[in-house]
């Protein structure tokens, strides 16, 4: 791609990023990845470039991913109709097999391969591996949709210590050998909290929390947990944004320093968030 930057301008950009590189080098940043940024091939390449770059400057990146559209597509090919209740996929035994196959197999290894191509060093895991995500049935009506009971961080920490990027798919297990489908945002919040991450980045399909959901210019750049709860009551935070903000608050309560909800459809939004003055999306903070 041709750019009109002079070498001096390039050097200036790198110099401006230096304080942020110092701030995040050696720190754990958990990135929740899914939605449109996963479907669009060009965006997927850019997200993996961002992750590889962060890793190369010493950030301990943990990538937690979903893959809902791919699961639905595979179910359709197998003649099975996807059914949702309050945004959660109803998961019978056949569906959980498909979820495990698509998430822990195809999607996970595709992302690992892309990171490797971009110069990073990644290892793919599912929540079952090493007992990372342990769960139980959330609601019998939903089938094998899991409620997280425990996060075991040791396998993730071992990989970070050996300078790998853990790429984690959100399926979980229990002591009886059952496999569960776990909501990606919830899994990312629990993992980030258990790791005491410096930051959790939630990539979504909108700009962040908006005062007017139809106007991106009304983006709220910073918000405290207390302010978020008021926006629930006033209806500003509604619909699909409610569970996302719930997950942000959960992550903060579990020990994450701050959480950012941002638009994964914007090219290089991760770098804009971590390595520039302006940032991207809405930062949710304790107080």
How are strands sequenced across the largest beta sheet? Answer: 5-8-2-1-11-13-14-12
Strand content: 15-25%
Uncertain runs are none
Q: How would you sum up the major sheet?
A: 8 strands, mixed
SSE pattern, N- to C-terminal: HEHHEHEEHEEEHEEEHEEHHEHE
Give the topology:
Elements: H1 7-24, E1 28-33, H2 36-39, H3 41-56, E2 60-65, H4 68-77, E3 84-85, E4 88-89, H5 93-117, E5 122-126, E6 133-137, E7 146-151, H6 154-161, E8 165-169, E9 171-173, E10 179-181, H7 184-195, E11 199-204, E12 222-224, H8 225-233, H9 241-253, E13 258-263, H10 269-275, E14 282-285
Parallel strand pairs: 1-2, 1-11, 2-8, 5-8, 11-13, 12-14
Antiparallel strand pairs: 3-4, 6-7, 9-10, 13-14
Helix pairs in contact: 3-5, 4-5, 7-9
Description:
The chain has a single domain (23-285), classed as Carbamate kinase, CATH 3.40.1160. Helices cover 43% and strands 22% of the residues. It is built from 10 helices and 14 strands. The chain has helices at residues 7-24, 36-39, 41-56, 68-77, 93-117, 154-161, 184-195, 225-233, 241-253, 269-275; strands spanning 28-33, 60-65, 84-85, 88-89, 122-126, 133-137, 146-151, 165-169, 171-173, 179-181, 199-204, 222-224, 258-263, 282-285. Strands 5-8-2-1-11-13-14-12 form an 8-stranded mixed sheet, sandwiched between helices. A two-stranded antiparallel ribbon has the order 3-4. The termini are far apart. The model has no long low-confidence stretch (mean pLDDT 89).
